[in-house]
Amino acid sequence: MSRPCPEDRVLDQLPDQGRWMTINAACKLLGVDQSTLRRWSDAGKVPVFRTPGGHRRYSEETLRALVGDGPRRQTRPRLGRQTLAERSIAGYEDEQFVSARDRRWYRAYSPSMLEDLRRYGRRLIELAGRFVTTPAGSTERATALGEARQIGEHYGRVSAAAGLNVAESVEAFLYFRVPVIRSIIGLTDDEALAAKRAVRVHVELGQFLDEVLVATVRSHEQCLAYRSPA
User: Is the CA virtual torsion 145, 147, 151, 153 positive or negative?
Assistant: First the structure.
């Protein structure tokens, strides 16, 4: 009978909870590098067992549940919509965004217009959170996108009324969408989403914001065309 290798003896000391994986195997399953997985484990995001020799071992069942590929699928981390909204709104208080007040397009908006844009902006953040946390093809996602497009159309009308050209309207939109993207990146890290899930969220958020931008530009162009002399 052959003697077990040192690695087998280490694994024999683990709790009897199914198959255990090395950190290399766990990283391959989750699609992340070792530094990321260590950080998640140290923060308590991903359960880890340390052998007497100091090796990290991960339960395959738990990891598959995190990526939605196992019987514990309901435990997969999800983005919190309220947290997303709070982080995104707070991002507009960042010093980088206060500097927007020096831009010509910002000064073109009246105080009432700015308050109107802030109100719709908060709603857009909520809709973005709903869009990326609901399944593709669902009624809720379609409803969120439809309302977001309407907000984009409103943005276009307000920018046209302020006397901005289309390029300035686009610049304003791009400038103020950064906090939303930044908050999503932070949440995907904090909530220990699997890499594939995190990438999908980023892609879906980009698609969502692109749809709003297209609606903004079309609405702005329509306003300019309506005002142009025949």
Answer: positive
**What pTM did the predictor assign?**
0.60
> Cα–Cα distance between 55 and 144 in angstroms, integer?
46
Specify the 3-state DSSP secondary structure of 42: helix
Residue 223 has pLDDT above 80, yes or no: yes
Span 172-215, pLDDT tens digits: 888 877 777 776 666 666 666 666 777 788 888 899 999 999 99
Sketch out the chain's domains with CATH numbers. 6-75 (1.10.1660.10), 81-227 (1.10.490)
Identify each DSSP E strand in the chain by its residue range.
20-21, 49-50, 56-59
Amino acid present at 11: L
User: Contact 205/124 with Cβ under 8 angstroms?
Assistant: no
